[in-house]
Amino acid sequence: MIMKKLTAFLLLFSLFLSPAVMLAGDVDSSAAPAATEMAAEAAPEAPADSAADGTTVTETEKGFREILKDKFIEGDYIWMSPILICLIIGLAVAIERIIYLNMATINTKKFLNELESALKSGGAQAALTVCQNTPGPVAGIFAEGLNRADEGIDVVEKAVVSYGGVEMGKMEKALPWLSLFIALAPMLGFLGTVIGMIFAFDKIEAAGDISPTVVAGGIKVALLTTVGGLIVAMILQIFYNYIMSKIEGLVNEMEEASVNFVDMLVKSGVAKSGNSNS
User: Fold this and answer.
1) What residues make up the domain containing 107?
2) Domain boundary at 62, 91, 107, which?
3) What is the DSSP string of 138-169?
4) Is 278 found in the same domain as 187?
């Protein structure tokens, strides 16, 4: 719960910080021409070629952030805003999942060694304390198994398998929403494409002419929305694949560690085979 609150705070802070950074970039970019003008006034007259070169340099100094902002405005905020919302929410879900999975990742071999030492020294209760003080799905599964240790090894195995499914569900939480945004972003881009083409043909019909100036605006909106949707989908797809690889790695660790855990319980005598009380 604390981790989720911290993640939400960081995301909100980054969202509030981004406009400030953009404004700072705008101030810097606006200050640069002013400094150039002051330097030009103070300096002696320069040849015409150097003035032309200075204009070219000023135009090429446009930053990547400014270009993105211009393209967003040119693509029409009505169609680009939903794509941007998909990116923001999708990144929020991805970052929350990555933080959760990284906090759930532990050194499994070290944890098993600590658990084995606790079983030998203090029995099931000491091992349960070790599990409760260790984060992650592996420790949670082992804690559930230790709570059923007195019922026999068969019951422990069933508890481990059942609770493993629960932990896997926790790891995959909110991933369907990320999949939705991956599919939705290009759809919104294609929708903007269709709408832009419709506007272009409306202008052709109204003007009775197919000159480039008549249709350029609508076609530009169509292309920019398509590009925006595809870029957002690609970014979120990279995060999705990374998260799935992390989950797959954790599941493999859970399965391998569970086998060692069951063997450990049998060898230590904490859980016996079958339900025999003898």
Assistant:
1) 65-278
2) 62
3) HHHHHHHHHHTGGG-HHHHHHHHHHHHHHHHH
4) yes
Average of per-residue pLDDT values in the chain: 74
Structure tokens at 85: 């919302």
pLDDT tens digit string along 218-273?
A: 677 777 888 888 999 999 999 999 999 999 989 888 888 888 888 888 777 766 66
Q: Is the domain of 97 the same as that of 181?
A: yes
Separation of CA 189 from chain center: 20
Hey, what's the torsion of the CAs at 112, 117, 120, 124, to 10 degrees? -60
Helix, strand, or coil (residue 54):
helix
77 and 185 together in one domain: yes
* Residues 259-269: tens digit of each pLDDT: 888 888 877 77
The percentage of residues in the chain with a pLDDT greater than 90, rounded to a whole number, is 18
CA angle 110, 116, 117 (to 5 degrees): 90
The CA-to-CA distance between both ends of the chain, in Å, stands at 44
Same domain, 45 and 93: no
